[in-house]
Amino acid sequence: MRKLKNEELIRKSVEEFNAAEKLPLTLILDNIRSLHNIGSVFRSSDAFLVKKIYLCGITACPPHKDIHKTALGATENVSWEHAESALEVVKKLQREGTSVWAIEQTETSIALDQFQPTKNQDHAFVLGNEVRGVSQEVVSSCGQALEIPQFGTKHSLNISVATGIVIWDFFTKTKL
Predict the structure, then answer these.
(1) For the domain that residue 42 is a member of, what is the CATH number?
(2) Cα-flanking dihedrals φ and ψ of residue 12, to 5°?
(3) pLDDT reading at 127 higher than 80
(4) Is residue 63 one of the residues assigned to a domain?
(5) Of 23, 28, 21, which is closest to residue 124 (Cα–Cα)?
(6) Best label site of 29, 96, 112, 122, fewest CB within 10 Å?
C-alpha cells in the first residue's frame, strides 16, 4: 500500500468549493477562546462543505496567524460572520426555520447516535466555550441538545474534536 501524494487527491478548487452545494448545517461558536480550536473548526467545515460559521462573543475572527495555523486557508473558503451574541444568532436562525441544537450535556439531551436530522431542513449546532460550554441562556433558547456519548473519566471533549464528530455524524446521516 502506498500513500497518495497531494496532487493525486481529488479536491475542489476554491471556485468549485464556492459553487458547490453546501451541507445544510451552520455552526455557532459561543465564546471560543482558543484560536487553534477556531482554525480547526474552519478546517473541518471546509472538509464537509458546512454552510456557514458564526463566530460569537469573544470568538476571534480571521485573519489571524494562529487561526490560519490550523485552518490552513479554510477561512478563505468557508462562509463566516461575527456576531456579538450567540443568543441573537440562535433566535435569528430559528425565525428563519432552522432547527438549532446546543451540543451540550443537559437533562434532556439526545445521544448523538440517536439523533436523526429532519430531511430538507437546515440545522445549526451551537458549540461552547472550552471551560463553561454553551451558555445556559443559549441552551435554554435552543430548547434541544445533542450529547456525544462518552465512556471514560472525562466530562467533555475538546471543542474542535466535538465539532468534527458532530459534523461527520450529520454528514453521514444527510449525504451518504
Answers:
(1) 3.40.1280.10
(2) -75, 150
(3) yes
(4) yes
(5) 28
(6) 96
User: Domain total for the chain?
Assistant: 1
140-150, pLDDT tens digit by residue?
999 999 999 99
All three cell numbers of 62: 480571521
Quick: pLDDT tens for 13-50: 999 999 999 999 999 999 999 999 999 999 999 999 99
Question: How far is the C-alpha of 144 from the C-alpha of 106, rounded, in Å?
Answer: 9
Return the bridge partners of 118, or none.
Answer: none
The three grid cell numbers given for residue 72, joined into one nine-digit string: 490552513
Q: Rounded CA gap, 70 and 88, in Å?
A: 28
Q: Find residue 103's DSSP bridge partners.
A: 146
Give the dihedral sign, CA 11/13/14/17: negative
Place of cell 461558536: 29
pLDDT at 175 (0 to 100):
85
161 burial class (0-12, 13-18, 19+ CB within 10 angstroms)?
Answer: middle
